[in-house]
Amino acid sequence: YRQQGLIGLMPKIRSDNGSSRTISHETIEEAVKLKDELPERSVSQIIAILEGEKKVPTGMLARSTLGRHLSRLGLTQKEAKQKISGHRRFAKEQRNRLWQADIKYGPYLPHPKNPKRKVRTYLVAFIDDATRLLCHGEFYLDQRRPVLEDCFRKAILKRGIPDAVYVDNGKIFVSRWFRLGCAKLGIRPINTKPYSPESKGKIERFNRTVESFIAEIELQQPKTLAELNQAFAVWVEEGYNHHPHSSLENETPANRFQKDTRRLRFVSLLKNAGTLSSGKQVAE
């Protein structure tokens, strides 16, 4: 005021107005490239890629800060809130009390016998209701009984026998084989009400999470089912199962499952019988 009078009290425009003071222009450009390459990528996924490629130090980028800059550039969309009425949320309190299962469309691959053709893949997945852990998931080339049998067997051999399994009314889940197999293992099959996919909220949310994997893997264009499943296994173990989950108070599904003290029941594989037989109870 003494030097410039009233003019000296007027607010001054910053010389760096409109630019980032915490994120370099190079980092923003890299983030924009990743968003342009795959618009479905979330801010968290972009940060993970930048950190994984060593373009920014781990923990330096705040999700809110990068999101604000991308929003200023018109590169983000507000997520519509999904309201489900008439259904109560429920969750079992211990591991293996209840599993949820589903079959989801996967990416197309070159046909094994005719590479000029494309063939659809299908993801079969079993998740634990209490911990959100993916007990086992795998892509297959069809939706027939051997596919469900293979995935169910692998899930049980890795995580133990669940008390019950929650499935929809698809033909493969209401088959005599599936109910008979569950009965032999002491598993109670529970079917959802017709035309109510929201009743399987946890597996449906997992399916939406898998969309990010499918979008990324389609950029890599795997040539075989083995390549696809190898990439998915890495995504599950290094990503989903060991990534903080909002419904678990930011604890990871793997940690929540591991620290649960409920005893697990395992099984032995009977090759000749073509089924699983219940074994003794063991603690993890």
From TrEMBL:
GO MF assignments: nucleic acid binding
Segments passing through the bilayer: none
A biological process term (GO) from this entry: DNA integration
Coiled coil regions in record: none
Residue ranges of every copy of the Integrase catalytic domain listed in the record: 91-261
SUPFAM superfamilies per UniProt: Ribonuclease H-like
Designated name of the protein: IS481 family transposase
